[in-house]
Every structure is written in structure tokens, then in C-alpha cells.
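Protein in question quoted for reference:
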Amino acid sequence: MTFLLDPPATSVAVCPVDDLVDDRGVCALVSDRHVAVFRLSGTRELVAVDNVDPFSGASVLSRGLVGSTRRDGAWVTYVASPLRKQRFDLRTGVCLDDPNVALDLFEVTVDHGMVMVQEV
């Protein structure tokens, strides 16, 4: 008998990658979690974070504004909550305005032109 200690992760198809607009978010339901997916302008990198704003509890971060700022000499790309304007680093999830608060991150890939977010 074989036991799998870490079962293989599965992913959920979100949308065709060509449907994404740079620096605009889309929301997807992944394992009963609301996930915000963004394609960043310039690099066209895909990132996925928790869509729930931890300050308000509302599922709105996919509608937030994407921007960048310099922190410690490096550029940080963030999404600003549309409600209370807290900014979250899209690569680490950490809130730039309160480092004690962070968003969960999700692995995102492209498979045959489809954006895939790994289930949690």
C-alpha cells in the first residue's frame, strides 16, 4: 500500500490569459476562496492574492488600483484597496501601510493559454 504524504496539487482554470487587461484584476473562486488575479504591465507577470480586504472584510481587491512605489531603494508593485486605500505588495502580500497584515498568495501559471490558480 502507498501513502501520499502530500497529494498532488490541482489547479482551477480562471480565464484565457489574453482576456486579462494589464494592471486590472479579475476575481475567481478557488477552493471556496475569492482570489484576485492580476497581469502586471511591463513584465506581464501574473500574480494571485486573496481578494478579501483584511481591513474591511469585503471581497474587493480585484477592483483595486495597481501602482508602484519605491521602498528601501527598490520598486514595489502594489494593489490599493478600493475601500480604505491600504496598499498590498503583490509579490509578498504584505500591507505597505501596516506590515502586521498580509494577504495570502496563490501560485498562478498559464497552461495552453489558460490562467490556472493552484487550489489551497
